[in-house]
Amino acid sequence: MTASSQLPTGTALPAPPAPGRRRLITEESVTALFFILPSLLGFILFYAMPALRGVWISMTDWDLLTDASFIGLQNYSRLFQDAEFWNALKVTLYYVVLNIPLQTILAVVIAVLMSRLTKSMLVRGLIILPWLLPPVVVGLLWLWLLDPNIGIVNVALKSLGLPMIAFLGLPQYAMPTIAMINIWQYVGYTALLIFAGLQSIPGSVYEAASIDGASENQMFWRITIPLLRPVLVFVLVTSVIGSFQIFDTIAITTKGGPINATKVMNWYIYEQAFTRYNMGYSTTISIILFAILVFISLAQMRLMRAGESDM
Amino acid sequence: MKNVRLLPLTILLILSMVLAACGGNSSAPADSSSSDTAAAGSDAASSDSGAAPDAAEASGTVTYWLWDSLQLPAYQKCADDFMAANPSITIEITQSGWDDYWSNVQTGMVAGTAPDVFTDHLAKYPEFAAKGQLVDIQPYAERDGVSLDAYIGDLADLWARDGARFGLPKDWDTVAIAYNQEALDAAGVTADDLNSLTWNPEDGGSFGEMLAQLTVDANGNNGLSADFDKSNITQYGFIMDANGGAYGQTQWSWLAETTGWTYNDGLYDTKYYYDDPRFAATLQWVADQMAAGFIMPEEQVSSLGGSAAFQSGQGALHANGSWMIGQLTSQSPFTVGFARLPEGPEGRKSMFNGLADSIWVGSENTEAAWQWVKYLASQECADTVGSYGVVFPAQQSGVDNALAAYEERGLDVSAFTEQALEEGGTFLFPVTDHASEVVAIMNPAVQSILLGQSDAESALSTANAEVNALFK
Question: Is the ipTM of this complex over 0.90?
Fold first, then answer.
């Protein structure tokens, strides 16, 4: 991230083009385009075109198996009266609130501990271990660990004289439980990103601060956090997007249940498309999710001044 | 303060992440393939709806899917016999678990990779048929003189609609009560005691009392004792296989139907009776037993299922279908026996259900596929499958083989067969349109009743209104 600030920019070239006559196509931009081309093709083919097609599908009554016909904005008006959609939105927001703050705070703490206290590769490796596991394995693992009848967690609770808890079986516990599972899985990865950001803060800043008599606490709040801001923005934006799109853990553990307690947007989209044959309507919900995410991401970046660094 | 060029980079990143998600939902079916299958569908439909197809020389490879791993060896044997008799046809069998199975079939239909022949279910086939995905085999059956009288009961009728036929029955099942012999011995209860129980939705009858008697807490008190501690139960009287959703085949249908309640008025009816007070009373009774601790609560069986809990020795009784006989008896660390369902106000009643094999319209080898379907529903294959003792075939001689196979293993499965033979002892699966929507509405409704979050009467009247609105 900070490396980009050291790259030569267009204006820093030895022979800048004459002011007022900036050429749009320079030799450099042709070369750049050449390098971008492969991923640009992939982007257009696998992201942009399907997304545009999604807009079209959202205006049809396509049921997967028979021909679709154009129904205009009917799916969109249906959305506003669909209690299940509003429930899905509510449940998703609930998950994001349970997931993001705790995960980010834990990640910052772990990253700081990693950079200040240990140089051991083993410890650093262990921290990201859960992230290396496939999400389906993580889901199954916790499903069995937390099972009320045969799971080891409830055996442990019982041996401590505590009552059995159906972590994934009761509506009030299911979502917090899934949020905890995902924090367990992703906190290491988030910490790794923040750790990388910490590495780019020059040690001289800390030296100067400690000579001035700053405490560890003061250095954290006055130096680490401000200089880490661009990385934190990146981490928050990507993890909020990821969090809104939670699917795999739910698909493995609760399948949207109990009742509708974990029926998040992505699960509802999947259910409408692939078990209820409403592909058109399902795509409408994805478009809305897309709009929500664009809005939230832009708002986040604006609020956190993502385009600037204090360094 | 240096201006870092982060903004455009971040936007691009978000865009690609978000679009990837959208792409995942919308790009899977490519235009070309969906129109291909649609075209294939109309071709097949037009050739089928006319005169009976000519009996062409069948050859090539036929792909066949099924979901029950226990039945795989039996059907592999059928396939081997079939291939020996028809050397020009190769059968390729693929098995996958129930949940994956249906999404594979469905996405396969969209992508043009569905199997030629697949095991079909009554809750699923009407939608496939309505969307033109199944070959109408009636002309083939007539051409080859397949006799539908060979099939037990009304099984064949379930697969027909308006003169079209989408499957030939291959097996049937009923529901009975599995019991843990050790739990019965400890309570001094015999199988005969279980066979003479009665039930009603008001006070649960002697069946309800039996559930209490077989429930034991950590202090060794049973559910009838005044000192019974429901917060510390070591053995539940009864375990259900989760909430049962719209049909409750093994969960509550055998209780609800004995009150005189029915799901609807028969095949392809357009009105459900989930708001009937008799049905509400039944579900309320079940929910109350869960709250009292005599039936293992819904939250404890919703993720891994009731049979796993029963097989780990946590309950005395467990209702399940005849397809589970093999698994329950061979994979439990205790002796498992089977008892009759309790007798309700209008007798004993079990769902009488069956599977069939359907041919996908996209099959490039319909004639060979038909030959395979015909063989699967033949007496020969029924006898083979029966001899494996995993399921009751749809023809009597196959059933005799199955009974012999069970007897050889020392298993008494008469609780299932007597139920099937009893006058008025069975009811059929409620085959209707919109099954997937019905399930999507009923699942959360029934679950919220069993979790004690809403009372049966109000939850069911809301849900029933939603269900019936689907048919308008």
Answer: no
